[in-house]
Structures are given as structure tokens and as C-alpha cells.
Automatic annotation (TrEMBL):
Name the record gives this protein: Mitochondrial elongation factor 1
GO molecular function ontology, one term from the record: nucleotide binding
One annotated GO biological process: mitochondrion organization
Signal peptide bounds: none
GO cellular component, as recorded: mitochondrial outer membrane
Span of domain Mitochondrial dynamics protein MID51-like C-terminal: 150-348
Lipid bilayer topology: Single-pass membrane protein
Pfam families according to UniProt: Mab-21_C, MID51-like_C
Entry keyword set: Membrane, Mitochondrion, Mitochondrion outer membrane, Nucleotide-binding, Phosphoprotein, Transmembrane, Transmembrane helix
Species: Takifugu flavidus (sansaifugu)
Transmembrane feature ranges: 20-44
Protein origin, superkingdom: Eukaryota
Entry-linked PANTHER family: MITOCHONDRIAL DYNAMICS PROTEIN MID49, MITOCHONDRIAL DYNAMICS PROTEINS 49/51 FAMILY MEMBER
Amino acid sequence: MNFQNTRRRGEDGVAMVINFLLSNARLVLGVGGAAILGIATLAVKRLIERAGRAADDEKVEQKITESWEELSLVSASPTLIQREIEGVVINHVAKTTKQQKADLCQPQKSSLETESNCDSKPKKLQLCALTLQDRLQQFYCTRAALDPQEVQRAQALALDICTEVHGFLHSRHPDMPLEEMSIGGSLLDNLQVICADHACLLVPLQLEASLWRLVPGEETLLTHPLHWMVRRLNIEYFPRGRSYWDRYLVGGYLSSEALVNWFNKAVMETVNWPTIGSSMDCLIRPALGGSDLRLEISPLDENGSESGDQPVFVTILPLLREGDVVLTAQPELTSPWVNAWHLSLYPWETRRLVELDAADNGCRIKTLKILKAVCRLNHALRPMEAAPLVNLILHLSDRESDWSDSSLDVRFQQCITELIGYLEQGALHSHFKPAVNLLNSLSEDQVDQMGFMLYCAVSEPEILLV
């Protein structure tokens, strides 16, 4: 809660009480309790404001009685506030109220003294000077939207890597059936925020339709809608060796893990990256840690040293396409199943957002980029990935039709409220695959911290835009 520089001494005590309670409420009450406690503090603040405006003790008593009635309405929810916390609130507020009444009886300082005290205090950032709509537009332009030159630079580096990998595979493994490689991901779709620092190099594998079949996750023993498998067909008529990809078979299925391991040895460890980097005036090295195939590209200065600019990470992503189904080889998502492939919903989600915004000239993508930037810059919200935010907006678009740019502030606040509800339920289901819970990877503590931060932002959404 933001207090002005002209607050009285009694309000300092209230600020201390509120800060203490809000900082510890999450540990005692969890997300739900902390929410109601935050509402209770608003009622307490209103109590002090009314008491401060009263001219005599009789009016003070009357206003205090009215505010206690409001506070009792909040405290009447036994499922969200425990009695121990109610006691803490009552004891501290009662003590602060007595101090406030004593302050009212003391002579007020002169206006000159008040002005001198205000001048001696550091000036705070006046967020209230701008409306939430103005703040959101400003945040989008300065933090969420990327500089076109920065995007072009990152895309150029990713395309150079694409050319080098394509040339290497064509020369060393000319019999490998591959479709045309390309750059994909949020960098290409203009969905990246803060800085242009990552891209995907898509490596589509070409399968023989008569020898392979993509099996949906629900039809497999895994029963996971996002874990598909690629089954080898007619092996009794077309024995192993008829297909180039038979060398990566595990139990009659094409193994994504075996394929990624081969790419790691044949591309990441074999390609002469220092020589390629010198020709591109960059330092290229495989990123350590993790099972994904990532390259770190750091620009060099005139002296041949790292310039200190933001490095660009390019992920090499083997994938399979059949119609609108895209399966990616990402063992970090399908572990411990060595022959499972991940069904990527990203193309469907991105296509749907673009179609909706094109139909009504909406601000869905702008809202998404603002939410992504907020989560990336806020420590408590950092575990929130892009996929839940995309599906949050898609679900909201099913119910709300007005996505004009003038309603950006309303939709942003609505997204905060909706996300709180999903966190309380512990589930945010995919728009295209309702059986998938997109919050399943979050720990209880992460959900608790994000919920508490968002509850604080319900009444003061500007705190997310600092």
C-alpha cells in the first residue's frame, strides 16, 4: 500500500503492521488466507483515513464503529482467515487506533514545518500520474516490444547456423532423408519479449508413410495426450534396414532419445564451431547442461573478444510433421520414456491467436507479450511459462468479445483475476487438449508465491509494471 508523505504518525504504525502481516500471511494462511487478509488491510486503512478526517473524539468513535463493521464482514469468512491472524489484526489495530486518537489531540504542525518535512523526504515515483491504460502502453513499448534491429540481428545469426548445419548434414550424411530446415519459435512469430535471445532450428525428418505411423498419446500405454509414439509398420514384410530411421528403433518404435543422442554426437560435438564462429565474427559453443541441443552464440568486438552483448541461443529441434500434427524430439519433456515424442501445441495456439486478432483487430497478442514480460521480470512470477499465458487468453477470448486496444487495461486486470483462480484450483487446462494441466509442473511453493503476488496486484496492478 502506498502512503503519501503527508501521513500522520499513527499511519506509520499501520504501515508497519500491514507490512508485517502481508509478508508473513502467505506462510501461515496460504494464498486464500493472504487474499482476504489483504482485503482486511484495506478496511483498516479506511478506518485510519476516516479517523484522520474527524474533527473531534465523538466523530472519531462513530467512524471507527463504521469501519469495524466493514472489517467484521471480511472476518466473517471462517474458511479463509484463521482466528490466530484475526487476533493479531485486532490487537495491532486497536493499539494503532489509540495512538491515532492521541495524535488528534496534539496540536498540528504549521504548514511551513509540514512543507519542510516533505522537502526533506525523498520523492517517490508518482505512478498515479498515469492511468493503467497509459502504464500498460508504456510498458509494452519499453519492455515487451523488441527493437526491430535486435530481432533482425538474432534472426540473421540463427539463419547462419541453419545454413551451416544443413550443409554439414548434407555433406556428411547425404542419405539422411530430411525436409527443408527453417527457423521457428517466438522469435519468428514476433512473440518474444525483453530481448531477442533464443530461436529454434527446425529439422523435419522425412518418414515413409507405408513404414511408419504416428500414434496419439491416448492410444499408447502412456495414456498421456502429449506423449505420442511413432510405430514401425509391416516389419514382417519390410524388415529392419528398409528405412533410414530403423537404426533408432527401440521396442518397435522410433526413439526420440536415441535420435537426440545421435544429433548430439554428430552435430554438436563434431562440427568445427570455432572455425564457423570466426567466419561469423561470433563465438559459438554448445550450451552445457540439459538434454536439449542448444548453441550459444556470443558476438565478438573488434579485438576478437566477447562484446558483452546478449548472446543468442539456438536450439536444434528434430521433429515430425503429419498434417497439422507436429511431434518434437524433446527428451526433457518426455522423460523417462525413451521412445515418446512430444506433441507441440505451439503452432495451434499461435495460429489461433493470430486469427482472432486479425478478425477484430484485437490486442490479444499485445496482452500476451505484456504478461510474458511481467512474468520474466518479476522474480515470484518467473516460473510461469508462456504456454499457460497463451491458453489463459484463449479461454478468456471464448467468453469476452471486446479485445479492442482501448480495453487493454480491462483485459489485463481480468487476466490477473483469472490466473489467480486457476492457481487456486491448481489447474489450467489446455485450450486444445483439455486433459492437459499446464500448471502441473509448478511446485506448491511456486504456486503460493505467484498467487500472493497476483493478489497484491488485484488492487494495485501497477506494481507488476515497475
